[in-house]
Amino acid sequence: MSSEGLRIGYVPEHFSTPIHFAQKHYGLHATLIPFPSGTGHMITAIRAGEIDIGIGLTEGWIAGLGKEGIEGDGGYRLVGTYVDTPLCWAISTGAQRPEITSVASLKGGKIGVSRIGSGSYVMGFVLADQQGWLADKTHFSDTVVLHNFENLRNAVNSGEADFFMWEHFTSKKYYDAGEIRRVGEIYTPWSSWKIVASTKLTKSGDARVKTLFEKLDRGIKHFNEHQDEAVEYISTELGYTEPDAREWLKTVKFPAHTEGVKNDVVRNCVSVLRKAGVLVEGKGLDVDAMVVKVCIAK
């Protein structure tokens, strides 16, 4: 069994705080690799063998395994739950876009996304489905791939895109600065963050995955018991204001035990994504094949 540290992909936002605590206080032996552009980029990286573990958005991981035409075994499996609460996606447009007055006015517009298959892409279809735009095929005129949050903000101001979706608190400081404008919000109808492991790890029964869960559980417990330390880290290292960090703390719940994924959560997500046209029944992996219980090799 390898004694090397796992290479863990994560999104360097406020949600990553327990990962930081797991490494700082509890000796998580890992190389933490930031992916500011999000889950879609991590899917590419884990399939390319660049990371062993990914901690990202539920809908991105599931869409990646549920699509038709995935190569080989798909490259990864869901193994753990990182956040129990839903994610609030804020819907944003440019500061000087008076023609965009509400979510309804986005129908037929250009949606900006970080990557095809990312959370920002998948949730566009969920929004269109909730708004009733999919039935007559008039949901969006174009999907503009912009790779990262900064490019998305620039695009809605230049007119390259009409709107995009990103996590609420990460977007908020740009509303406060007048750079972009909030049009609305949409919550994921599922718990928001999952942990995936490469199929190489899940097939080999690598003990480091079990150790990872133990360290993350301790990092989460520390987070829950030391909220002032969490606020200080989020506001000094991650670029959020202290009031926003405290407000976010009221909205988020991490699980006491990160190991394992409830099949019902995956089944519900797949059902919504099929209804939204992101996934097609009979294509990609079955729900039961997306989730793996980590077993340690003897």
Written account of the structure:
Strands 2-1-3-10-4 form a five-stranded mixed beta sheet, with helices on both faces. It has a five-stranded mixed beta sheet with strand order 7-6-8-5-9. It has 298 residues and is an alpha/beta fold. The protein is built from twelve helices and ten strands. Strand 6, helix 4 and strand 7 form a beta-alpha-beta unit. The radius of gyration is 19 Å and the shape is globular. The chain has two domains: 182 residues, Periplasmic binding protein-like II (D-Maltodextrin-Binding Protein, domain 2), CATH 3.40.190; 100 residues, Periplasmic binding protein-like II (D-Maltodextrin-Binding Protein, domain 2). One of its GO terms (cellular component) is periplasmic space. Its main location: periplasm. It is found in: Periplasm. Keywords: Signal.
Please tally the helical runs, counting DSSP H or I stretches of 4 or more residues.
12
**Level-1 CATH class name of the largest domain:** Alpha Beta
Number of domains: 2
SSE pattern, N- to C-terminal: EHEHEHEEEHEHEHEEHHHHHH
> What portion of the residues fall into strands of 2 or more residues?
15-25%
Q: How many angstroms does the end-to-end distance come to?
A: 10 Å
Q: Count the strands?
A: 10
Share of helix, binned: 40-55%
Q: What's the shape?
A: globular
CATH superfamily of the largest domain: Periplasmic binding protein-like II
pLDDT average, as an integer?
A: 94
With strands numbered from the N-terminus, the spatial order across the biggest sheet is 2-1-3-10-4
